[in-house]
Structure formats: C-alpha cells, structure tokens
Design a protein that fits this description.
Oligomer: heterodimer
Number of helices of chain A: 13
Order of helices and strands of chain B: HHHHHHHHHHH
CATH architecture of the largest domain in chain B: Orthogonal Bundle
Mean pLDDT of chain B: 87
Helix content of chain B: over 70%
Strand content of chain A: under 5%
Strand order of the largest sheet of chain A: 1-2
CATH topology of chain A: MetI-like fold
Mean pLDDT of chain A: 85
Low-confidence stretches of chain A: 1-5
Radius of gyration of chain B: 24 Å
Distance between the termini of chain B: 40 Å
Helix content of chain A: over 70%
CATH class of chain A: Mainly Alpha
Order of helices and strands of chain A: HEEHHHHHHHHHHHH
C-alpha cells in the first residue's frame, strides 16, 4: 500500500470530477425540488412564500386518482411482462449456446431503432384508420366502434412492448445459471412438469425475478412518452402531469410535489427488494454455517 | 417435452411482437401519402411504393431540412457526452475500486442513485436547477443533462470490468519504477479499454435515444432527433421521412455490428491458431 496513488490527496483528486459533477447536477437539483414543494406558487409562474399549501393541494381529487392510476397501470405492465418473460428466459436458457446468443441478440436488436420512432409506429398502427383497427372491426372485436388508440389498453400494450426486453434479460441471466438437472430430478421423483417448474425453477431464479420486476416497474412509474402519444386524454399518468405542470402551467411547486411522490413510489419497492436480498443472504449464510457445524461435529464424533 | 414446447411457442410469439413495429418502420418509409400514412388512395386504389422520402433525405430537400438538422444535433450531443462521460465515469470507477471509506460510500450512492431514478425525475430536477440559476435552456443545458445521466452508466460498466482487474499488475508497474501517470496510461488504461468502450457505446445509445430528459431542458427551438420526432407526430406531412431515416440508421448499425463481429471473430480465430 505504499504506491503514490493510494494517498489521501490522490483519492480526492480521482474522486473529484464525478463527485462534484453529480453533486452539482444530481444531488443539488434533488434538494431544490424538495425545497420547492414547501413553497406556494404565484400566478406569474414563479415560486411563492414558504408554505405547506402545495402538499395540502395535492389531496385535490385530481391528483390521488392519477397517482393511483399510474401505480395500477405499472403493476399491470409488470405482471404482463413477467408472465411473458419467464417462459422466454426458460426457453432461451434451454437452447444450445449458439442459438442462445442469436436469440438473446435478436431480443435486443429492436433497441437500435429510436424509442420515439417505435412508439410512433405503434401509434400509426393503432390509429382508427390503421390496419390493426381495420382487423379488429373485421372480426368485430371491441364492438366495432371503440378505438384502441387513446385508451389505457394501448398504454399497457405498448409499455409491455417497450419494457419486456428489460424483463427477459435479467431472467435469462438467472436461468442460464440454473441447473436444469434439478428439474429432471424432480420429475423422476414424480413431480408434474408444471409443479416442478413452479417449485424448483421459479425459486431458483428468484434473484432474476426481483431485478426483472424492478427493471419494468421503475420505467413504468416514470412513463411519459407512451401515455402522451397513445393515451390521449383518457390515460394521463404522473409523468404527463409533471410535464404539464412544469412546462405548460409553470406551476413549479406542484410539479415538484408530484416528482417527490414519484420518487417515493420508486424507492419503496427498491427498499423492499434490498431488505429481501439482505434477509435471503443472511438465511443462506445461517444455513451454510449450520451445515458446516453439523459436518464438524459429525467428523468429531467419527474421530472419537 | 411438452413444457419446453409451450415456452418455445411463447418465445416465438414474443419475438414476433417485438419485431412488428420494426417491420412497420421499414414499410412506412415507402408510404406515398404522408398525411394518411396509407398505401391506398381515397378511392381504394393501390398507390404503390415510393422512394421519394429517401431521395429527400439524400438531397437535403427543404421538407426534411429541420429533421436532418435535429439528427446532426443529436449526433453532436451524443458524441460530446460520450467523450465527457467516459472520462468522468472512468475516474469515478477507479476511485470506487481503489478506495474504501466514508467518502467512497457517499460517492457510490451518488453514482448509483441516478440509475434507479426514472428519467423524468432527472429531467425535472435539472430544469429546476437551471430555472433557479436563471440559465437559458439550449445546447449547453442538453449537453450537461446528457453527461449527467451517462456518467453513472459508464462508471458502473467500467467498475464491473475493474472487478476482474488484477491489482498486482499495477503494483508490478510501480515496483518497476513507473510513476502513477505512466502506470495509468500504459498499464491500467489499455486493460480497461474494452470496458470503457462498452460504457461509451451504452452512453452513446442512451444519449441519442433520450427524449424525456431532453424535452425538459431543451428550451424553445433546440430540438434533438427524438424531441423533433415527437413534436412532428402531432401535425406533419413528412412523417414517412422519419421512418426512412430510421431505416437507414438501422441498416447502418446492423452493418457496423456485423463488421465488428466479423473482425472480432476473425481475431479470435487468429488467436486460436496462434495458441495451437
């Protein structure tokens, strides 16, 4: 530890660029946002006196409904993504390595086209004059007169489309490490296919499941482009409301308060996941220690 | 096995679902009618495919001039923010790897938190900062915002690479008389380069694709490709040109990735030959 780069001054020097940059452009703005929520707003678009009026106004019937709707849609999107992603991850992990690389790569390929352009392609497709609507009308799905565009269903559909690869990737990484001979062992012991899948495979990839849930839930909560382009006035989420308040109405305190609510609703599941992981690790360690202790006493007994 | 057949069928359906919009992006680039986005005339007759949107892009026709301008701006901002975030992110990863202590745990939290925050929160908080400091939004605020969210991704990518890094190599360099700068540029940097390149590619992709953060800090009149496209979707006659340009980008990236795969696999083949 005698090398020159390990001195205290060197540490400050190397840490400074990223530390100062992120402190100035990430931490300080976060504090400003939090501070603005304790201000009232004035009509000219500025920030008024210190007060709790913003938080009181947040109970306004409009906001709780939007917050609730955002959480509900995010949960729906997360469930759909996980339900579709788990079998995909399973199927990819069971392929031979050559095919695995090809399929895993082709799941990421759509990302090379701009996100906005892909969402816009969906909008064109779901448009009342588009071919998807024509198909629906042909088979009289949806009564033949309701449109898919500008609805909650469109937002859920395209959100699942956009976030699904983020769910497949961590699940696939977990499934790749899974020992599939365990499934065969379970079958040999008489377990039905689905029972073995549920009792052995799913617990085996639980770390991947947790990260997949977070990878979908977080962007879904923060969603802005998808509801704006496909939800119309029928599906306004927190993200749209923040943009509306900040840019169009110049109501900075309200936008800040909504942003704070969003940050909290993201931090809660992350906190839960971290707590869960710590508990799992502690449990694994305990089990390992117990087993080692048992082994030692058994050996000791044998030696006697 | 029955079970794996079901999962393979779901996988096939999901892949089809993921590719439908990509196919449409390519097809819509040839639509003759830019307002109705349809291949059919009002009397139901088939109008055929057209290459005029591609012609407009290559000749810089005035109807696509603003689109091309926004595209160049996106490339410039993505390039600059990639370079800057690679430099800041690499030093950040080095610091996080080399030292442990109070300072580094705060530093780690500072680098990690932007990754778990939705884009829109980074956008709104930067807007508040710029508004509080009375800064006019434009090119520079977009660049600052992009560097801010790219730094964390680069830092984490390089840090992952550093985890496999054998510190004894640096120690050996010191023992052989290298100074800290010489050791960094001649020993650590070359070994870390693949990690930095991977982080840089990620930063470039994120920057060129970002619409949420940019739409908060771009101010009036400064548009990157994504924000320009999202403003175009409301009322424009030239929408197929967006799809044509996206198709060109897709083809370009595919060729680039294909070439790099070819080069690396050739390199690996050479290595194998040498090893045997």
């Amino acid at each position: 530890m005698s090398s020159p780069l390990r001195s205290r001054r060197a540490e400050w020097l190397v840490t400074a660029p990223s530390f100062l940059w992120l402190a100035l452009f990430f931490a300080v703005p976060a504090v400003i946002v939090l501070a603005f929520t304790f201000h009232g707003h004035d009509i000219s678009g500025g920030v008024g006196e210190w007060s709790l009026s913003t938080w009181r106004e947040l109970v306004d019937p409009d906001y709780p409904a939007i917050i609730w709707n955002t959480i509900k849609i995010s949960v729906e999107v997360t469930i759909w993504s996980i339900v579709l992603a788990v079998p995909c991850a399973y199927a990819i992990a069971r392929m031979n390595p050559r095919w695995r690389a090809i399929v895993a790569g082709s799941i990421m390929l759509p990302f090379w086209t701009s996100f906005v352009v892909r969402v816009f392609a969906w909008k064109t497709m779901l448009h009342p004059d588009g071919w998807l609507q024509a198909c629906c009308n042909l088979f009289s799905i949806g009564g033949g007169h309701s449109t898919i565009l500008d609805s909650e269903a469109a937002v859920v559909l395209v959100s699942v489309y956009s976030f699904l690869p983020f769910a497949i990737m961590p699940l696939y990484t977990a499934a790749e490490k899974f020992d599939f001979s365990l499934l065969e062992a379970a079958r040999d012991l008489g377990a039905k296919n689905f029972y073995a899948f549920r009792k052995i495979f799913l617990p085996g990839i639980r770390q991947g499941l947790v990260s997949a849930v977070l990878m979908v839930f977080i962007p879904a909560i923060g969603s802005y482009v998808i509801p704006q382009m496909l939800g119309g006035t029928n599906c306004v989420l927190i993200g749209n409301k923040i943009f509306m308040r900040a840019i169009q109405n110049r109501n900075i305190p309200h936008a800040s308060a909504l942003a704070t609510v969003m940050a909290v609703s993201v931090l809660i599941p992350i906190g839960l996941a971290m707590w869960w992981k710590r508990r799992q690790d502690a449990r694994d360690r305990q089990r390992l220690e117990a087993q080692t202790a048992k082994l030692f006493t058994a050996e000791g007994g044998a030696a006697k | 096995m029955k079970r794996s057949m079901v999962s393979v069928m779901i996988l096939a359906a999901v892949l089809a679902f993921l590719y439908v919009p990509i196919i449409l992006v390519v097809v819509y680039g040839f639509v003759p009618n830019g307002i109705s986005m349809s291949f059919f005339g009002s009397d139901g007759s088939f109008l055929g495919f057209t290459g005029k949107w591609y012609r407009y892009i290559f000749t810089g026709h005035q109807s696509v001039r603003a689109l091309l301008q926004s595209f160049w701006l996106s490339l410039i901002i993505a390039g600059l923010s990639t370079v800057a975030s690679c430099a800041i992110g690499t030093t950040s990863a080095l610091a996080l790897h080399k030292w442990r202590g109070r300072l580094q745990s705060i530093h780690h939290a500072l680098v990690y938190t932007p990754l778990i925050m939705p884009d829109i929160l980074i956008g709104i908080s930067l807007l508040m900062l710029f508004a509080a400091c009375h800064v006019n939004c434009g090119f520079w605020t977009i660049l600052i915002a992009h560097i801010t969210f790219c730094v964390s991704y680069v830092a984490m990518t390089v840090l992952a690479r550093l985890q496999d890094f054998d510190d004894r190599i640096t120690e050996a360099a010191y023992d052989l008389g290298a100074g800290p700068w010489y050791a960094f540029f001649h020993v650590e940097l070359p070994i870390l380069l693949p990690g930095i390149v991977a982080g840089g590619l990620l930063a470039f992709t994120l920057s060129i694709d970002d619409v949420v953060i940019t739409s908060f800090v771009n101010g009036a009149g400064t548009n990157t490709f994504p924000t320009y496209v999202s403003s175009m979707t409301k009322h424009s006659r030239n929408l197929p040109s967006v799809f044509a340009l996206s198709t060109l980008m897709l083809v370009f990236t595919c060729v680039l990735v294909g070439l790099s795969k070819l080069i690396t696999s050739k390199g690996q083949a050479k290595l194998k030959v040498k090893a045997s």
